Amino acid sequence: WVSGMIGIGMPNSRLERFEKAIADGQILMMVDVPKTRVEEFEELIRGHHPEAEIEGTEPTIPAFP
Questions:
Q1: How far is CA 49 from CA 46, 53, 59, in A?
Q2: What is the DSSP string of 14-38?
Q3: Which 3 state secondary structure label does DSSP give 45?
C-alpha cells in the first residue's frame, strides 16, 4: 500500500507526450487488451468517436501476451 501511494506521486515518463493535450482539456484513454483484439477495439472506438486520435500500441511492454 505504501509503495503504491509513493508511486502515484511520481510522474510517468510514458505520459509526457500527452501532457499538453491533457492540459488543453483533451481526454487520454489507455486500454490494455490482448494483441489479437487491438484492431477490434480500434474499430469500436472509431465507430463511437471518429474524432479520436489512436496513437498506436506498445508491443514491447504487453499487458497481455
A1: 5, 9, 24
A2: GGGGGHHHHHTT---------GGGH
A3: helix
